[in-house]
């Protein structure tokens, strides 16, 4: 099946960053991608990956590709002729060397589990590659998966002991932190299997919620359809994680974009009830009131954002100015427009409006 897909040719629209196991990111582009992309993965690696997924009841919905001499393993999401494809790319020699150094077969399994963790956590969707927090999530997943497969904690940590950089880099955390993340995942799995009966009550859906959040954030367009999708995905995020403050606020933002002000108000209020100092949510609340032509309330909530937010935003002043204008208060409107211009001097619409009002 792999060969069939790739016979059609994989054309990669732009270069994207991949999440590497350690050290550095890799930029993949059509020219730079492993020339052996069409080759089949080794049976061992694929078997390991299937085992990991079976433990978690998941389907294998990515391609596993062997790529010699990259001395690393990567998770990456590439756009091809048939749409986006998720890859796990690994260097067999690299896995073998780590395995020998670690003196356990679990080493390569844990590296592959780590890469699966990147895909399951939707880390490859933003195209920016590794970041320390992503690495820790993927490490935690690999610890979790290895416990489920029957590895001891030492076996789960063996690869990291031998491959992880001792010091933190811009993309990868220090080895000690990564070992802790693996231990955390491993311990979580161990405690879950002990409390098997309570499993459904104790499940933590945070990673699902984050996945939907990132899915929404990855949308680039500004059409109505794009906004509807954003609202739906942020809705999924709060469904899985009912205290996901940023997801409520973002939902409010795009409901405002869609002109669904009553709904936006409800979401903004949810965000504020979770965190009364979340000033971005007050802006969305004010926007909703403005949309419903309740300018007094709009001024009230823009004011809360203006008084508290650091740094202040020109947009809040401008929006409050238009609320004042709608109430016939030119003096306050002019003062706010001037403040908006102070913060963003090149804002031509505001410059024009100000000239018009002062005429
Ligand atoms: Zn990684």
From TrEMBL:
Keywords: Repeat, TPR repeat. TPR repeats lie at residues 279-312, 314-347. PROSITE patterns: TPR. Gene3D superfamilies: Metalloproteases ('zincins'), catalytic domain, Tetratricopeptide repeat domain. This is Tetratricopeptide repeat protein.
């Amino acid at each position: 099946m792999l060969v069939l897909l790739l016979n059609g040719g994989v054309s990669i629209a732009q270069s994207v960053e991949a999440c590497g196991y350690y050290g550095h990111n890799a930029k993949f582009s059509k020219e730079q991608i492993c020339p052996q992309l069409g080759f089949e993965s080794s049976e061992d690696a694929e078997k390991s990956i299937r085992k990991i997924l079976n433990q978690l009841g998941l389907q294998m919905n990515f391609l596993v590709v062997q790529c010699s001499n990259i001395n690393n393993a990567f998770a990456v999401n590439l756009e091809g002729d048939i749409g986006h494809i998720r890859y796990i790319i690994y260097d067999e020699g690299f896995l073998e060397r780590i395995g020998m150094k670690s003196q356990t077969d679990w080493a390569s399994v844990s590296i592959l589990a780590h890469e699966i963790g990147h895909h399951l956590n939707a880390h490859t969707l933003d195209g920016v590659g590794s970041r320390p927090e992503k690495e820790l999530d993927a490490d935690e997943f690999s610890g979790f998966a290895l416990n489920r497969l029957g590895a001891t904690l030492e076996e789960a940590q063996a690869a990291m002991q031998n491959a992880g950089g001792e010091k933190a880099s811009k993309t990868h955390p220090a080895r000690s932190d990564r070992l802790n993340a693996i231990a955390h995942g491993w311990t979580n799995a161990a405690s879950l299997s002990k409390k098997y009966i309570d499993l459904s009550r104790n499940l933590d859906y945070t990673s699902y919620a984050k996945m939907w959040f990132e899915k929404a954030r990855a949308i680039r367009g500004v059409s109505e359809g794009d906004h509807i999708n954003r609202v739906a995905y942020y809705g999924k995020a709060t469904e899985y994680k009912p205290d996901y403050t940023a997801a409520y606020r973002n939902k409010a933002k795009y409901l405002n974009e869609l002109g669904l002000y009553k709904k936006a108000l409800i979401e903004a209020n949810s965000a504020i009830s979770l965190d009364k100092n979340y000033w971005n949510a007050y802006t969305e609340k004010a926007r909703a009131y403005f949309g419903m032509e309740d300018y007094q309330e709009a001024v009230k909530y823009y004011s809360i954002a203006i008084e508290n937010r650091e740094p202040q935003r020109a947009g809040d002043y401008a929006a409050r100015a238009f609320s004042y204008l709608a109430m016939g208060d030119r003096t306050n409107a002019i003062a706010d427009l001037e403040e908006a211009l102070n913060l963003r001097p090149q804002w031509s619409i505001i410059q024009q409006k100000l000239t018009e009002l002062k005429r």
